[in-house]
Amino acid sequence: MRLHLKYIMVSPLLIFLALFVIFPTFYLWYLAFNKVTFINLRNPIFCGFKNFFEVFEPTLGFVRSVLFSFKFAFAATAVQLPLSLGYALLFNRNFRGKGLVLTLFLLPMFTSSALFGVVGRLLFNAQIGTATYLINALLRPFNIHILPLGKDFVFITLIFLDTVMWVPFLFLFIYTALRALPPDYIEAALIDGASNYIVFRHIILPYLTPLLGVLGVIRFADAFKTFDIIYTLTGGGPGSLTTSYSIKVYELAFVKGNFGVAAAASLLGFFILSIPLSFIIIYTRRAWRI
Amino acid sequence: MKVKDVIFWVIVLFSLLVFLFPLLNVISIAFKRDIDIVSMPPRIIFRPVLDHFRIAFATGGYHFDRYFINSILISTLSTLLTLGITILPAYSVSRYNVGGKSFLNFIISLRFFPPILFTIPFYILFSRMNLTDTILGIAITHTLMNVPIVFPIMVSFIDEVPKSIEEAAFIDGCSTWSLLGRILLPLISPGLVSIAFINFIFSWNEYLMALILSSGKATPITVGAGLFIRSFGVKYGELAAVTTVALIPPLAIAVILRRHIIRGLTMGIVIKG
Fold first, then answer.
1. Partners of A34 in beta bridges
2. What is the pLDDT of residue B83?
3. Of A16, A170, B134, B155, which sits 20 to 30 A from B271 (CA to CA)?
């Protein structure tokens, strides 16, 4: 093999990364230090750190959107990871019709999250929503009437829809790992008289912990930057109740046309996410040597 | 034992109902007449009609036929681009460990960058390059989002091809390029097919980049369906029909090629571990 050929082979990817990752990243930093609006899109005016200070103005609502994203990411991970583990354990056996059941169970992970927001809008609609009707029919004896997309329940509705989309995804990885666990360990433990709980606590869980850690980090980061499903379900509302970090940056840039402030906000939000995330990654790597 | 089985199936069927209910609901609305859509309690049995599909895709003047074609074009182009820029680099990384572990890690870590970071520079740069509202522009952004997912899968597919085959070919006097074309490519083609379809699904489902970069001409159907809510108020039937059609291609691929796609997807994360 000629030495340089292997470098020529990587070049398509390197060129692509340079053009569409490295250069835009520098450009984003450049924009963050300039005043750029729809009017002077092509001639930005340098303004130093002004954008970064402006991001924290209370009226802008950026801090609130970051807090919402943390809350959403935390709730989503806390609900979805244990639930996926439960389903992986449930399906980790042989039964008739398993192929069909698994195919159906995995379907939501192949749907577009933006469309899932639309789907949720129809499902939880105040007038024609089937789920709205069913929930309120169940609650009628208690004389309660709820609006799933109203301000009191919108967060729960959002987490529910997100869970339906993401549990199949997380389940798939946990289930695949479980299938790869050599059955001998479990059989040996059972022969020695271990209960199902002991097998789970001392064999299955330690085996899965590194994977659960990785999945937890990935899910948390993905949930933090969620845009699609929230935007198509609620548009960030009612009011600005469900405005996530990504929706806030989108509004600043593409609704208000304030690209400089939006660039600063997007970078700040990313760093705010990165700090706890890198701590978690370092900690999990040390704890489980992965 | 019997009781345990019953409990198991009750849980399984109940879960399936909950997880698929949102989809079943939207499909049923798409086929209902307007009068059945608004009737409460919701009708489970109704006379299905195709009116909403007809209005949304043909007679209503909504352009959803064009959005659907745009989606196909964007996803196909992005798939070709992704494969085009990752096959040779993946071979190089797999066989010669170019860039070492850090290069592969860098590409995987791109997945953690929020797409919203890229929307702002892309919007301005693409409008300068006249790439906004074009199939190519949107396909490039989708390629960027898919490379971090597809590249590690591609590397592990090539890792699986035994090196001894290549060594034998070299000894027989095979050049590098014909080795790649005649020996490696046929061997990894099943992997390439699953990668291609994974990429197609992800590109089809992408929303944010397409939303900011399109304004009618290159709008894909996911963005079109999202806009529909804002623009046309309470046309629930048409909205459901558009959503149903937009959901079908990825779901159909997932059902038909389930094994291949799952193998590809789970491979991607193995490397991460």
1. A46
2. 94
3. A16
